[in-house]
Design a protein that fits this description.
Blueprint (H helix, E strand, L loop, with lengths): L1 H14 L11 E4 L4 E7 L7 E10 L3 E10 L1 E10 L2 E9 L4 E7 L2 E11 L6 E10 L5 H23 L1
Parallel strand pairs: 1-3
Antiparallel strand pairs: 2-9, 3-8, 4-7, 4-9, 5-6, 5-8
């Protein structure tokens, strides 16, 4: 019985060195209030483990969300890490079909999809990743607000004098 476990572990180690390469560009760019598609597939010679990474940036604080669908893959986790320190996991979910990571600061991140390919050569996946962020007000916004308050105060003072 132990020999079977050792053989299975050895096969897993040997096959684990071949990960699928994402077909889409790995850099999704800025995700502020947009959603971008991601797609991947396997070649006939690849092993059954998959881990794809996609990098993106947020210009403003917000929430990253997405969904994934597949044929032949069984995804086990979606993980979010900071691009500057990818060894530290910021958030993870074990329900990758629909995911959401909130409370993120502006900066660069990487998202990882981890799964098992049960039918090498014919498996594929697709989905989308997006972000909802709140824009930071520009200085012109505050200047216009102050000018408006000044006009209201001026009009109130004129009415009092009449």
């Amino acid at each position: 019985m132990k020999l079977k476990h050792i053989a299975a572990a050895a096969a897993l180690v040997v096959s684990g060195s071949a990960f699928a390469v994402p077909i889409s560009l790995p850099d999704l760019g800025a995700l502020d209030n947009v959603s971008k598609g991601i797609f991947g597939a396997t070649a006939p010679t690849e092993a059954f483990l998959l881990q794809d990474f996609f990098s993106f940036t947020l210009a403003n604080p917000g929430t990253v969300f997405g969904e994934i669908f597949s044929s032949g893959y069984s995804f086990s986790a979606v993980t979010l890490v900071a691009a500057a320190n990818p060894s530290v996991t910021l958030a993870s979910t074990s329900t990758p079909n629909s995911f959401s990571f909130g409370g993120l600061d502006a900066g660069s991140y990487k998202i990882s999809f981890l799964g098992v390919d049960s039918t090498p050569g014919s498996s594929f996946y697709g989905g989308s990743v997006g972000a909802a962020t709140a824009p930071v007000p520009e200085p012109e916004t505050y200047a216009l607000m102050l000018a408006g308050l000044g006009m209201v105060g001026f009009m109130a003072a004129r009415r009092k004098q009449s």
